[in-house]
Design a protein that fits this description.
With 172 residues, the chain is an alpha/beta fold. 38% of the residues lie in helices and 20% in strands. The protein is built from six helices and seven strands. The chain has a seven-stranded mixed β-sheet. The longest helix is centred in the N-terminal third of the chain and has 17 residues. 26% of the residues are buried.
Length: 172
C-alpha cells in the first residue's frame, strides 16, 4: 500500500508540473501578438529584417543541420518554396539556422539541393527572442506582422504546411 501511495503521489506531482498555467509569459511571441522584428544575414550575405517583409505572409522556420526532424521536413519546405501558387500569394520562407557556421549550412543546402532563403542566427539570439526551446519550430506571420500560428515539431508532408498557409493567406 505504501508503494502504491508513493507512486500515486509522484505521478500526481509529474502531472501537475507538466500542466501549463494557462497564460503566456510576458514578452513571449504567441498567436495573436506581433512578431518581434529581427535582422539576420542570409547565406548570401544580405541583411534581412522581418519588418521589411510587412505586406507579405511569412513562414519562419527555426532549424539546424544536425536535427533529424529538421532534415525530414526540408523537402516539404522546398516544395512550398518552388510552388508557384504560394509565390504568387507573396509567401516568404525564412529558414533560420540556429548556431551553425555558414560553411556547414552551405554544404547542407548544396548536398540536399535546397534553394529557399536561409538566415544565420549564429549566436541563437533570434531563437531566444522567439522562445524556441525545440527544433524545428515554425512561426506563421500574416502580412500585418501578426503571428497567426506556431508549429513545434516536424511537418509530416507538404499538405500539413499548406493547411496552415491557406489560413494564413486567407486572413484567418
Amino acid at each position: 500500500i505504501r508503494i502504491v501511495m508513493l507512486v500515486a503521489v509522484l505521478l500526481s506531482g509529474l502531472v501537475i508540473a507538466g500542466c501549463p498555467s494557462g497564460s503566456v509569459s510576458e514578452g513571449v511571441p504567441a498567436p495573436g501578438g506581433s512578431a518581434p522584428d529581427f535582422q539576420l544575414k542570409s547565406l548570401e550575405g544580405e541583411t534581412v529584417s522581418l519588418d521589411s517583409l510587412k505586406g507579405r505572409p511569412v513562414m519562419v522556420n527555426f532549424w539546424a543541420t544536425w536535427c533529424g526532424s529538421c532534415r525530414v521536413e526540408r523537402p516539404f519546405i522546398q516544395e512550398i518554396y518552388e510552388d508557384p501558387a504560394w509565390s504568387e500569394q507573396g509567401l516568404v520562407i525564412l529558414a533560420v539556422n540556429l548556431r551553425e557556421s555558414s560553411s556547414l549550412v552551405w554544404s547542407f543546402m548544396d548536398y540536399y539541393g535546397l534553394t529557399f532563403m536561409v538566415l544565420l542566427d549564429t549566436r541563437g539570439e533570434v531563437g531566444m527572442m522567439y522562445n524556441v526551446s525545440g527544433i524545428p519550430t515554425t512561426y506563421f506571420i500574416d502580412k500585418d506582422g501578426i503571428i497567426k500560428d506556431v508549429k513545434i515539431g516536424t511537418f509530416r508532408n507538404k499538405a500539413e504546411i499548406e493547411q496552415i498557409l491557406s489560413k494564413l493567406v486567407a486572413g484567418e
